[in-house]
Amino acid sequence: MAFKITDACISCGACAAECPVGAISEGDSQYEINPDVCISCGACAATCPVEAPTEE
Ligand code: SF4
Ligand code: SF4
Prior knowledge:
Elements: E1 3-5, H1 14-18, E2 24-26, E3 31-33, H2 43-47, E4 53-55
Antiparallel strand pairs: 1-4, 2-3
């Protein structure tokens, strides 16, 4: 089960810097997680100031 970034994302970029596998990239309107790469470590959720990444 991968993590997903909700609409709460304010595109600060903090999670992308913390992801150990590089699964997070800047999308058109907010940051996005590639579910095929995510290992569900939770680092993005722990780093995010608005709790946008959630486990699907
Ligand atoms: Fe990256 Fe871990 Fe977040 Fe998945 S849960 S996107 S591996 S930081
Ligand atoms: Fe969006 Fe949170 Fe990642 Fe910042 S840390 S880019 S608000 S998901």
